[in-house]
Amino acid sequence: MTVYSVYEPADAADLEARTGKVAFVKDGIAWLALFVPILWLIYHRMWLELLVFLVIFMSLPVIFGSGPAAREIAGWASLCLTVLFALEANDLRGWALRRRGFRFAGTAWGRDLVEAETRFFSRWLPEQEKPSAPIPAVAMPTQRGAGIVPTRPARGDEVIGSFPRS
Q1: Per residue in 55-99, pLDDT tens?
Q2: What is the C-alpha to C-alpha distance for residues 8 and 101, in angstroms, rounded to an integer?
Q3: Domain ranges across the chain
Q4: Which of 5, 54, 115, 141 could be disulfide-bonded to 110 (CB atoms 3.0-4.6 Å)?
């Protein structure tokens, strides 16, 4: 089973427009981001993350130097950073969606994306179509002290433990 985090646009008031823009983000490693991280970032329009990614990877030769041993260390460091990026890429995508005005709508799971979408929308759509019921007012007692339990006995009442003697 694959688990997806689901994000819906917060600004769209129309249910049909919101339904069309719902984003499913898979939890776990993003395999495409492991092999072609720059294309993965461009495809998901994560421009800020792309800029940070490029700055980090362009600064590795500057940090480690230009010698043969330094280039090998920079290569291993870039490989480790790419694996780390692939592990966290979907979480970064969820963060980018929230930054763009989406809100977390729930989770969905299934063998594939189609099954997860079916499960999510079969649960989510009926909730969206319900009119919000007004919160009922709490009835307050009309007589003074009608709903209040005395905490101390009156003079002359004999109390055993917490209960007055009858």
Answers
A1: 999 999 889 888 889 889 999 999 999 999 999 999 999 999 999
A2: 9
A3: 2-122
A4: 115
